[in-house]
């Protein structure tokens, strides 16, 4: 890979005489060591207070569950099974639902505004002069006028504003609730809290518990939401997409969901990707080739490849699109679904008991002059950063890239033998 030899090693993964593995991330320069003997322990959490489930647990365990839909802001989009599609082979998207319609059936996936967003509509208005477009304003008026709509908006505005709501009038609360319809921080929520047929509270429904077809719809809904945020707010320069699974990875609920956040700058990771692509247009091809040459590939298909990542603070799996199109929303169905299938497979191989972050990276629409393939990094949050990392900025991973590969590949083979992976995946 093309780098300044005075600043970067010629090898990004080195194994020392005692077996210590030293890694450098070729894009960020992050240094990571794996010391022998520290990676043999089990990865997954042992949840406290496991209990037997009752019927209500499947529908009311958290605010994302189906009997508590109105504890979340007004839906933007939902995905339901098409008529005659009992096995989840086809989905239909619904928009503009009233509160009564939201609660009248169970959705397979929902896109809702985050009740406590990172960047509020006030931020966009104060800093960029943002105003709602006519479609957003019309949706807001229609929802408020629907049966139960006004009450729903008032209730959630009080929750969001907290003590500030005590002195607010209904008109002021409704004005604040209008932000839900122009939110740039949305959540894509799955139907299940627990796997179908679960009997214990530790049987949570993770990404890997979805069928491959369900997971394709889950990613497609996320990708469409990203495209919509870019289209409806001209001040959004980048849409961050990510998933936090389990509380050690930052999840508020142990209920499957992704988040998308529109921001007005790129962020350090995207800046590094852009700089790398400008210095060497083939840098990402070379990164994948390096992983292949070091036997780190765990799976691939017609349009994507997954390999054990290197130079990350946590043990990681990287999934890269091999499409010539950089923006996920401009890809063909086959290209998007190839990525969805490998992300699903790596989650299933990781296991539902392992806390992890799923981080998406894509080329911003304004950066068409550089080639940055869409890629997803799945990071296992199995260790806490401590004083050594803080003082040296050298990070200790308990599992080397080869160790990640050696854990994931056998699990993928078993899942494939059981028929749980999408067709077309090569191990």
Overview of this protein structure:
This protein is α+β, with helices and mostly antiparallel strands and about 425 residues long. Helices cover about 30% and strands about 20% of the residues. It is built from twelve helices and 15 strands. The protein has helices at about 55-60, 100-105, 120-130, 135-145, 150-160, 170-175, 210-230, 270-280, 285-295, 335-350, 385-390, 400-415, and strands at about 15, 20-25, 30-35, 75-80, 90-95, 110-115, 185-190, 240-245, 255-265, 295-300, 305-310, 315-320, 355-360, 375-380, 395. An eleven-stranded antiparallel sheet has the order 5-4-6-7-9-8-13-14-12-11-10. Strands 1-2-3-15 form a four-stranded mixed sheet. About 40% of the residues are buried.
How far apart the termini lie comes to 26 Å
Beta strand count: 15
* Helix vs. strand class: alpha+beta
Q: Give the C-alpha Rg.
A: 22 Å
Strand order of the largest sheet: 5-4-6-7-9-8-13-14-12-11-10
Strand content: 15-25%
Largest sheet: number of strands, sense, barrel closure: 11 strands, antiparallel
